[in-house]
Amino acid sequence: MSSMIGNKLKVSIFGESHGGAIGVVIDGLPSGLEIDMNFIESQMERRAPGKDSFSTARKESDKPSVVSGLFEGKTTGSPLCAIILNEDTRSKDYSYLKYAMRPGHADYTGHVKYSGFNDYRGGGHFSGRITAPLLFAGALAMQVLENYKGILIGTRIKKIYGIADNSSFEENPETVVNIRSMDFPVIDQQAKKLMQHEILKAKEEGDSVGGVAETIILNIPAGYGEPFFDSVESKISHMIFSIPAVKGIEFGQGFNITNMRGSESNDPYYTQEGNVFLKSNNNGGILGGITNGMPVVFRTAIKPTPSISKLQETIDVSTMENTTLQVSGRHDPCIVQRAIPVIDAAAALVVLDLIMEREGEIFFNKTKGDI
Amino acid sequence: MSSMIGNKLKVSIFGESHGGAIGVVIDGLPSGLEIDMNFIESQMERRAPGKDSFSTARKESDKPSVVSGLFEGKTTGSPLCAIILNEDTRSKDYSYLKYAMRPGHADYTGHVKYSGFNDYRGGGHFSGRITAPLLFAGALAMQVLENYKGILIGTRIKKIYGIADNSSFEENPETVVNIRSMDFPVIDQQAKKLMQHEILKAKEEGDSVGGVAETIILNIPAGYGEPFFDSVESKISHMIFSIPAVKGIEFGQGFNITNMRGSESNDPYYTQEGNVFLKSNNNGGILGGITNGMPVVFRTAIKPTPSISKLQETIDVSTMENTTLQVSGRHDPCIVQRAIPVIDAAAALVVLDLIMEREGEIFFNKTKGDI
Amino acid sequence: MSSMIGNKLKVSIFGESHGGAIGVVIDGLPSGLEIDMNFIESQMERRAPGKDSFSTARKESDKPSVVSGLFEGKTTGSPLCAIILNEDTRSKDYSYLKYAMRPGHADYTGHVKYSGFNDYRGGGHFSGRITAPLLFAGALAMQVLENYKGILIGTRIKKIYGIADNSSFEENPETVVNIRSMDFPVIDQQAKKLMQHEILKAKEEGDSVGGVAETIILNIPAGYGEPFFDSVESKISHMIFSIPAVKGIEFGQGFNITNMRGSESNDPYYTQEGNVFLKSNNNGGILGGITNGMPVVFRTAIKPTPSISKLQETIDVSTMENTTLQVSGRHDPCIVQRAIPVIDAAAALVVLDLIMEREGEIFFNKTKGDI
Amino acid sequence: MSSMIGNKLKVSIFGESHGGAIGVVIDGLPSGLEIDMNFIESQMERRAPGKDSFSTARKESDKPSVVSGLFEGKTTGSPLCAIILNEDTRSKDYSYLKYAMRPGHADYTGHVKYSGFNDYRGGGHFSGRITAPLLFAGALAMQVLENYKGILIGTRIKKIYGIADNSSFEENPETVVNIRSMDFPVIDQQAKKLMQHEILKAKEEGDSVGGVAETIILNIPAGYGEPFFDSVESKISHMIFSIPAVKGIEFGQGFNITNMRGSESNDPYYTQEGNVFLKSNNNGGILGGITNGMPVVFRTAIKPTPSISKLQETIDVSTMENTTLQVSGRHDPCIVQRAIPVIDAAAALVVLDLIMEREGEIFFNKTKGDI
Fold it and tell me: Where on this chain does NADP(+) bind (chains A, B, C, D) (predicted)?
């Protein structure tokens, strides 16, 4: 039961890196939602490899085909399935990895869990490539949130290998949308250069780096989420840790809140023209697991790409002996910029599910069908 | 659908701070498990308030009564329900909080979500008190894991208001168990004094502080968990963010891994006598969402107790005007030490669920009943 | 994972016949619903034993205590837990049943599943007594459906031991409600006498009989339910087969529809004043798994009470030898009339869940809390 | 949330009759299971239309492509997705059905639920064609049950339009398997002729008939299932009512048990060589929701195919006026024989889920992968 998530909106992803196809089934979408495939493809394009020197030169054809759930450009209310055929897979690149376990990857844990029957080629179902169908589903959710609820989601690179962009994200809501059009979404252009420098340096050395992404969800009203087990933090973190390479998440001030006094960290309320606001957003828009009307803000720690060209110590599971491994082929010296649209998408799926949990299938004022 | 969690082992908590009772239903426990109520009560005692000057002087009778699912000291296989009656609740303490929303608490978000019908007394269902039944369920899971699988879980205070205990936790496995007997579980005694000093200082000023807890799960074999949506990180973070006041979680090196190169963060494998080990544990015992045989290590950021005696700005939801609020009564100047056994318990519930997902209801070699 | 059901409205029952208490947790109820406990208790009274000569003389105190989720007579939105303490249990009546498996009961299957650790006294968690908390939850749902949606549910005895009441139920909607006030809810008084005669005859002979219940759900609009796995029939049947002793269910014409031609069984549509009606209701108000606006009609087959006084052949699981068994004590010669309010309640839970799936937590126009 | 089912083994179907493709995702399959695609295709062939005069002449290419989860002939443990491309769909046949609601079909209920946005062509997602991917998943489960657990499932036609086959099914276990090779699986050849005669008579008149299927599950041991909400009857009925046209289900003696006394319907136990047996099987192999070691037996009522050539009264949803409708094109005069392998498959999915619930992912002794 590995690959399904959601309460009202159920998302199920499938596929292996070098299998016939990868894809996603989205079950529970209301009917009558207009879907703009161009928007979805533009988001998927952001994740696609081979665009510049900061990511792998490997090309993937991430063109999705919708085979169900869409009729005359609108959702039918039945499960929507999108499929991406696998191409340019070069299986022979990976054959030598059948027994030598790549450190930092899921090779060994997958080998144990699946008793050696997993498809080891390219990481199989553990491959970052499987985030493409997740991105598809989430980009669809993003446009539904924007068009029907006015909710905007954006993610920027906050840090790469210790280089931070200290400019404010939350206080510039327009950047939340603008940032989506950047290939390397950093606000402070000076920090951007330093980050890219670190990536290229690591690349030259056959090594890799990671970083921190910061996400903001704007215009989500107060009252969504649940106390305890379906807290907004619980649901978002569950989803975000599904993305390969994520090792940490924090909301609002996050770990830094432990350096504050309660009198500082408590966000004071005030009213203006009958509306309720908070003077600060240390809690990242969530109190008691429920949105408070402020932007939801979270940061995600993404580890250095485990695929590196350097010689590494490992084991051979066929002989159960120690060995070394040098992963040849095309690698991402940094995966953070490609993970950004996946995080956007993942967050959008959670928010749409939250809304549907509260408002049901009929959460938006749709006009009736063509009759 | 706020208060249920788990795939195979379903835990459902109920109750409000000042209602008739709080409790928990655990559904899916195998039959024939011997339960030592003394161990459970000793864990609950760790959370109980009123023990020392670092927590509130309020007394709570947290004595649980098991009303089903236990027969002659062993689980029956039917849902196990434990109930804790509410006493010493002093409802009048809270009456003035009906309309004035306490900053940092769930008063306002609960008010919006439940349209003003929530039980506002003492935070109602949002109260930290509702972690007592969660702790009950988790302490039960802890002893099942220890007795039937040899899996040990322990949590220590890593940081309070910036004061860190830099001694190693992971490398001293015996402390994982020993630390449970400490009221204030810090390994480095010098750090402990400084932390306690900070708490008392905050208390004197009517303020509060938070901190970071570090949890270690020992002896969990490789192969548990799932790729993507039921990754071990996903399941643990989902559960941990259910605990009030948690604002961040990280596994292994966590956020610090973004300061490393891939060649450093990748944990190399080696074999010894046919067993597989890793030379480091930067990934916190989890790769691709699945345990790798190393200890699972995570850290939890806990915010300063939102209940403080200082004057705070807020709103009155009956008049929708700005107002100020001074929360009288007995507060915890720091909640971290009381949250420690709750984190242990929460982690235990996840681990038991992971094991049952893989091994079913018959995961242990139980001897047949008395016939 | 035995005892939870529901998508949006989750119901979890617990307890054993002779344990400390039985009860139910209802998770997902919207806040602000006015609950009339008298109505709930009047429904529970209908199931209570000891009322007349057609059921067991055993008395049970089925008085429920609500310990959470209700505040000032309205739901809080948090889990609502109701508890019924066990009294008058006479454990010694059952001690000889520890090893001798009663035919027709779950003694043997429970013994195998739980490896002999189940609480055998009075059937433990398998006892019909555990339907009391289910009835509590369902009676609560019934009044919510009536008060906020105008949906009415009623169940009558259609058949006892081959004696049928051939009067129409569906065409007399007022009887749907009136029938609830009858102890032995049969419409045709002549059939009623014959049925009761059969029950008493069986009782005299230490034997038992079963029958068929017919349920009607009025005023449920078209459009609820799902194609395939959450069809209305799927959800109702799943719930109804949870009630002990149920062996069959059919919707509309049910099994009899297999004796019809398509031209007869297809229910023709017609419109009147802009509304859509069907000229017949052979499909029992459901097409493609979704309500069509007609009354939902189903019939439930209930087997003869397995507890009889006659000598029966069985096995002793301690010696694994053949033996005989004579069940002494107080038995129900017929359980159908006591099952009637449980079926009502079970159906109500499904309907409320269907509505909340579609319309969310905010399915009714509630007035805001007292501010 | 229409189209997913299962606790441990999750099955998700998608597709519309005239969309791009239909398919299924099976999530939770253990790794290393050998899959024989020929067996699956032979089962799918049984459902395929166009074989003889008893079903529609319409041809469908039901050739499934497995795009994930299978590697070198064995399951990988990752989600298995199979896709069937839609061909020979003749969309224009259905264009006139956009507004005229076919009686007995889901046209109207789908129209209401999806506000007119559903894909009306050929019934869209409600089409019986969507049972093809369900059958795929279930046929896979059937062979896993047979090969790894020795559990056999077979379904026969018990009745067509009142003509019954009174020969015993349960007492001839070998027929359980043999019957699968029959196109029209009736045991009594005389009854078979009469049934086929009725079908052809209805066909000539542009009408249709239905019938009753009887299913038997052999060699399922005692102890599977749950009390109350996951009773075996609950799970099987939930699944079976997902199949279009099903209007009733009964287990063991089913509705007939209401004509028996308790002393007749209780199945007596006896032991022989340390094993436990029952002298009769009135309860259909299930007591208290749990298997008792006897064959699980159930019967399913299938209504006459709603598609008939006769003139029918209905409404036009564009004008909201009364109209008449004559459904042209190729119809099944009887759908029962085509539903038989779908029922087999559906039952197999439930049984495999039951086993995995109890025994986990590692329920069978698999040999390790090729290392």
Answer: 47
Give yes or no for residue D327 having a pLDDT over 90.
Answer: no
Give per-residue burial for C98-133: e unless 16+ CB within 10 Å, then b: bbbbbbbbbbbbbbbbbbbbbbbbbbbbbbbbbbbb
- Position D144 in a domain: yes
Q: Which residue of A has its CA nearest to C362?
A: A359
Q: How confident is the model at residue C368 (pLDDT cuts 50, 70, 90)?
A: very low
Contact B162, A258 (CB under 8 A): yes
- The answer to whether residue B368 sits within a structural domain is no
Instruction: Inform me whether the pLDDT recorded for B345 exceeds 60.
Output: yes
Task: Find the helix or strand (DSSP H, E) in which C365 lies.
Answer: none
Give the C-alpha distances (Å, rounded to integers) separating B181 from B55, B154, B186: 17, 10, 11
- What is the residue-averaged pLDDT of chain D? 92
Chains that touch D (3 or more CB pairs under 8 A): A, B, C
What residue type is assigned to position A135 of the chain? L
Write down the pTM of the prediction: 0.96
Of the candidates C157, C207, C209, the residue with the CA atom closest to the CA atom of residue C183: C157
Model confidence at A288: pLDDT above 80: yes
Q: How many CB atoms lie within 10 A of CB B43?
A: 22
| pLDDT 10s digits, A221-240 | 999 999 999 999 999 999 99
5-24 in chain A: CB under 8 A from chain C: 8
Q: Based on the structure, what is the number of domains in chain C?
A: 1
Q: Is A59 a domain residue?
A: yes
Q: Are B22 and B60 in contact (CB under 8 A)?
A: no
- Among A78, A227, A359, whose Cβ lies nearest the Cβ of C360? A359
CB contact under 8 A, A258 and B109: no
Q: What is the CATH number of the domain that holds A59?
A: 3.60.150.10
- As a three-state string, the secondary structure of C43-92 is HHHHHCCCCCCCCCCCCCCCCCEEEECEECCEECCCCEEEEEECCCCCHH
Q: Which domain holds residue C192?
A: 4-359
C55, part of any domain: yes
Cβ distance of A78 and D125 shorter than 8 Å: yes
Judge residue B190's burial from the number of C-beta atoms within 10 Å of its C-beta, 0-12 exposed, 13-18 middle, 19 or more buried: exposed
The length of chain B, given as a count of residues: 371
Cα A173 to Cα A185: distance, rounded to the nearest angstrom: 14
Look at residue A325 and give its three-state secondary structure: strand
